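Hi R.,

Here's the chain you asked about this morning:
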Amino acid sequence: MTADDLDRPCGRHFTFRQLIEVGETWRRVRVPNLPERRETVAALRRLAEEILDPVADSFGLMEITYGFASWQLTRYVPGRIDPTRDQHAGYELRLDGRPICPRLGQAADFCIPGVCSGVLCVSIAASLPFDRLYFYGRDRPIHVSVGPDESRAIIVMLEGPSGRRVPQKKSARWLAEHFG
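And the predicted structure, written out as tokens:
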């Protein structure tokens, strides 16, 4: 992919730029953040068509807070991220030829102002072909990915006794009981 391709459609509602040049870190550092592998471009398109477009059709356009992340960008992302597991790198490779994230696929984090993130998760879990779905709180962005495993794993980050958020695997039924 080249910079000239960024304004091409990626699904019905998005361009590649809207999935690549996003997030607080990218806006701050503006490092090159272009996918190099055609499989990553295809995964971005799949994410848009199978997840982002249907969510936008149901709830309105979202604010994407973190999309594709090249190794150049992830060096600048503060906090606890794990590029080897989070699927934001798509099918990109390390210098030694191994995938940055062996799960492959593609992820995006997003929210829709005025819509509870739990409600978004219930909708996605009920009808869309996701790989992993992370819920961090009612008013926080969710993380959703597509990938070859299509594991449909739902992870809820609940506050533990120490005050830190602890990941807990939950079911679509649990989501519906709490946010449906």
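The chain is about 30% helix and 20% strand.

Let me know if you need anything else.
M.
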